[in-house]
């Protein structure tokens, strides 16, 4: 991305949008390398992700010119921050955090883990080995309001672009979610919308399913109901105990969250209503 | 299977069952080629599927001796019917029926389609081209009781081993289901237990899922709640309309039902409570 | 596609191509609904597939104007034939042909099977049940030249858009291939480039692989070396005999060929050198 | 596994083996919980993996009695070491090592990483953060013989059960391989037997494949030709550069090696000739 210009646009659909955009981009002496575009006909919305060769002379002017050319209310982003900052919330399970931090350490995450906070202290040692600050914010003996205020206060100085719930087992209030609109990513331990709620593997085992799934999604006010970013599954069979299913599930959770983070970090995901447009 | 003996057993678990069974089999001069065994420790149940080289001299005596050796209440099957008879119920959709009948025609189904019955006549021409009887049993203007009585009366002379609901869009009553206990197989248009009920693809589209699934299961009294035999998925994305999802879904439905039928026809599936043991 | 205009373009890459194209399309009063674009930077080639809402007033004028606007040597196709004609060549195996013909019969293939020709007569009965002409062109006692001349002569009156090798087990000469440049589609019984040549399942079994694959590709002069359209796999294990692998392989072959045909029929595949650009 | 007895047997096939084994096990007061058995009819070999509830009073006596009861030349293992020791060889790539070490750290690997040795020093810091010894054994300026002697000398004090080549980019001599017969596991960067040798992703890109694969296998004298343990694939498309394919490939390599290690660590893999029997 070092010598490229990335443009993300969403707006009301209209005739000739691609021509308008392409002309504006050409006026800025940029050559379009990749263009992925989607029109939601039911919602009459237009979405596009454009990669141009070369750096724009003036990102702000380009964004201004595009916005002026497009229908009113357009959202135009030129070159979103390349090195995004992630704050990770955890409880006790390590599989997702481990994967994220190793990628961070070797520089293949495409983003920076600025801090980890946990309502238990279990993952502190691991995190600190990589020089990443770990904050233990217990929920015990606190109201949800207090607990969340502490989490928010903890994250505040890091100014994270995204908050990643890497198996964070507390439900967040709408007030907390509103602090990071469209910027909280959760990994859910099931193939949503199956097995909503607690103990999904126990439910899955009781139901005798032959596939175990996981879902990465943005968090909204409705628990487990936010826009889905990525999903995947792994086969299981009758011989899998609940424990085996949990183990298989952790592998899927890890890879699905990893995939979703890569998509978000590369600015390939646009939220639209309660869905996502993903330009893979 | 022509020169083999297949033995299926389920019973209460106990110490030494494998030795008991293996000895009884050896006394009948049979050599075990494959043995797949499963103990459900929570339910204290033992399941085994054995393939022996050579034909037993006396299937009934072998079954008798095994039953005598095993804990009381054991279910022992020696050489279940090889050429099973399938009755297929349909409405208007052809994708599952088409696949089943082509396999039947070329002798790769491993079973015989003895008849097809539909509450619409749409699939009559196709079915009859293969010399398979098609019965149009309309549900219109009839009570569920009457309609099901007609279906049952239609199937009766064919004495099917299994009734396959190949996109049969009517809900069957417990009374009808009781006629074919553990012998009705349905293909459900979703990754159960997600999207139970009607219009699953519309629901899936509205939810913005990234995978579309299908589930083949035995039919019990509770709609969509019977023992699952097989499940699979196909990836979808934001650009898929409901119609695209339906199309993708049909491909999964077809292959999942095909897989489930092969497993059942080869006697690899044992129902246990509301689950299946599948010796793939 | 009934009220849409489909445009396919490939040409040398240059600055401002998207703007040029979008402007030309807008001048024809068409609104771009979907646009998929790819630049092969190594080859300096530009590829685009555009779907516009509405019918162009004049397809030829649109193609002319686009060609005039683009770099010299551009290939522009406006609304390729919607109802493509497929000629299918077979030997004895039925699984791929069965799938194609059932889709043809129910109108979900998106194309018309105009004829089937086989060097054996085994699939004649099946084909004719659907009112499709079947031609038995034996290869026995003929030189390759003679045999292929007969095949070509047989297909000639049908003027097929594509020739589909649905398990046609004869190698075609460069002369025959040259009659249908980029229009012969083969399904290869392995995950190319593994197991090139004969008896791939025997090779796969001997090697102890854990996955069985299939590859659909365009046919060029080099056997098994043409541009790949689609590939897929199925898991196998130590207990699979060669025969089991063949059976599993047939399922993959069927679904991969089916997928490749759908992509080609919907004009989503562009051949470029020895590769394909597939706008899924 | 804490209160179980695991028995692995391979021998010449004969009539009544299961009965013989089951009786011997029963005489030792053990109850069979799971039994997976396979007969390679072509090779006339019998393989079985048995899990019994409870600890045997005397493992050696049980092994002795089983060996006495079975055909001559049987290999019988009772309770192989539970906490296996892995030595990991690396070059510069971190993705496989990172995954292995994180699992080791959190106790979910099921084995112990006793040491890491690399012909470059790149992964030293990472390894040492987890308190695992890292040995830098450069190959530069040394004959293969010298280099391998140094590696062998480095590993010697750790007495590893398995040597894992986690992207170790040097070809090992038959002499080195002979030190750890059936105990060296490699992850190969392709879907073997496609793209044998160097630069598989470059080859794959040039060939325009639609799937990228990886293969975990035991190392034998023939490069890339040893018994395959596990394989998997990931879809790719025309827009993937060689670099993108490498990135996708690393994800598959990581998960395939991880799966293969889990199978080997749980004693689910038996080598037979140039293949594996895997009791998943």
UniProtKB/TrEMBL annotation, chains A, B, C, D:
Return the EC number. Answer: 3.5.1.10
Reaction catalysed by this enzyme: (6R)-10-formyltetrahydrofolate + H2O = (6S)-5,6,7,8-tetrahydrofolate + formate + H(+)
Write down the InterPro entries for this protein, in alphabetical order. Answer: ACT-like_dom_sf, ACT_dom, Formyl-FH4-Hydrolase_C, Formyl_transf_N, Formyl_transf_N_sf, PurU
What molecular function does GO assign, one term? formyltetrahydrofolate deformylase activity
Where do the ACT domain residues begin and end?
6-85
- Keyword Acetylation belongs to the record: no
Q: Mind listing the GO biological process terms from this record?
A: 'de novo' IMP biosynthetic process; one-carbon metabolic process
Listed pathway(s): Purine metabolism; IMP biosynthesis via de novo pathway; formate from 10-formyl-5,6,7,8-tetrahydrofolate: step 1/1
Q: EC top class, in one word?
A: hydrolase
Keyword list, A-Z? Hydrolase, One-carbon metabolism, Purine biosynthesis
Q: Which Pfam families match?
A: Formyl_trans_N
Where are the active-site residues found?
224
List the HAMAP family hit by this protein, alphabetically: PurU
Tell me, in a sentence or two, what this protein's role is. Catalyzes the hydrolysis of 10-formyltetrahydrofolate (formyl-FH4) to formate and tetrahydrofolate (FH4).
Q: Which NCBIfam families match?
A: PRK06027.1 (NF004684), PurU (TIGR00655)
State the family it belongs to: Belongs to the PurU family.
Its protein name is Formyltetrahydrofolate deformylase
